[in-house]
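Task 17 of the worksheet. Students: predict the tertiary structure of the chain below and write it out as structure tokens. Keep your answer in the requested format; marks are given for formatting as well as content.
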Amino acid sequence: MPKHILIVDDSKTVRNLVAFIMKKEGFKVSTAEDGLDGLEKLYSLEKVDLIISDVNMPRMDGFTYIKTVREQEAYKDIPIIVLSTEGQEKDIQTGLNLGANLYMVKPAQPEKMVKNIKMLLG
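Model answer:
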């Protein structure tokens, strides 16, 4: 069964692009428009193997989303990759301190993203 990736980003363009790359690699993909939508999807989907999340989003930003996911026992071990335009050291540290496994700055190279995902999924 293919691994399931949840992409949380308010940009439809980014969601579609990342989803296209992941599907091409054989992953199952679900998408969400912001952190709140991301939580709803996470709770309703049978299984999510990895989350890719933006930081700057309406309703619930990526940092709050990661913190909320990490606080819940059922989801605390899901690998999370932050994919954001925010590339300052303080943003990267915040993301990692809240529980992200990896922080990538947009635009990320597709090959590097796929390599990192495969590494995180073992």
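Marker's comment: The mean pLDDT is 95. The domain at 4-120 is CATH 3.40.50.2300 (Rossmann fold).
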